[in-house]
Design brief:
The strands form 3 sheets. Strands 7, 8, 9, 10, 11, 12 and 13 form a 7-stranded antiparallel sheet that branches. Strands 2-5-3-4 form a 4-stranded mixed sheet, with no helix packed on it. The protein has one domain. The chain has 259 residues and is mainly β. 3% of the residues lie in helices and 53% in strands.
Length: 259
């Protein structure tokens, strides 16, 4: 394991942090020597105060005290790391605001029988940016804004080690949707967000074929009220935006099969 220092920059096209507030999609990009090598889609972490620190409660939110790391498989690109030259690994965050705290670890499996392994990337489908879209519909009763993002990744490479020649194939299909509805009459808001990530990792070599399939689904749904300064509820000291109903579910399923 080799610790990394994350150099984070903003790769989004939004010019200001105020615009980023209205664009809820975030993406962590991983680079090897300046070449895009993979991505991870972070899930919003709700702490005990949820959307508002003044609503702090003694029961912490899901994963508030133990945030799970994200894994980006770089096996098809191992040839970039075994080229006998110094390497750098960097990160970019798409559409983040003023700051983003991030650290990382590089997990390596060393070959005890040879000093240097080799490899190369055979094919690649990895666009620089995810495909995103945003629509806003405004009428006299509500504002309805929907943001979507999709990304398809396919990386195929090989590794030559003491065990022989092995092919590594990493494929991912990622979808994201965030819908925000603001009621202009009742001053209530609703946020509905869903994210799916389907990953297939296949490694074939002299010992056979190992296939790992992972399906992840993340959903985030909550509502909030907006109180005017003359409302009696405002006197309780709450901020104008306070969560009324909050549901957070992270479903994770992984199956491994050795063929």
């Amino acid at each position: 394991m080799r610790p990394l220092i994350a150099h984070v920059t903003n790769s989004g096209t939004l010019p200001t942090s105020q615009d980023a507030v209205a664009f809820p999609f975030r993406e962590i990009k991983v680079f090897i020597d300046g070449t895009l090598a993979g991505t991870a889609w972070p899930f919003p972490i709700m702490y005990a105060g949820a959307l508002n620190p003044s609503l702090w409660r003694p029961v912490p939110g899901i994963e508030a005290l133990n945030i799970s790391p994200y894994t980006v498989n770089l096996t098809p690109l191992v040839g970039l790391l075994t080229n006998r030259s110094p390497n750098s690994i960097g990160f970019q965050i798409a559409n983040f605001m003023s700051s983003w705290r991030l650290d990382a670890d590089l997990l390596l499996y060393l070959d005890p029988s040879v000093a240097i392994t080799s490899g190369a990337l055979l094919s690649e489908t990895l666009p620089t940016d995810a495909t995103t879209a945003q629509t806003t519909v405004v009428d006299s009763a509500q504002v309805n804004q929907t943001t979507t993002a999709t990304r398809v990744i396919s990386l195929l490479g090989y590794v030559n080690s003491s065990s022989g020649h092995a092919l590594a194939d990493v494929s991912q299909v990622m979808t994201f949707k965030n819908q925000q509805i603001l009621d202009l009459i009742g001053f209530t808001g609703h946020v509905l967000q869903a994210e799916t990530i389907a990953t297939i990792i296949s490694v074939s070599g002299p010992g056979g074929v190992l296939v790992q399939m992972t399906n992840e689904t993340y959903s985030l749904n909550f509502s909030y009220d907006t109180y005017l300064s003359g409302d009696s509820r405002w006197g309780r000291g709450l901020r104008p935006i306070s969560p009324r109903d909050y549901a957070d579910r992270r479903d994770y399923h992984a199956s491994r099969q050795l063929l």
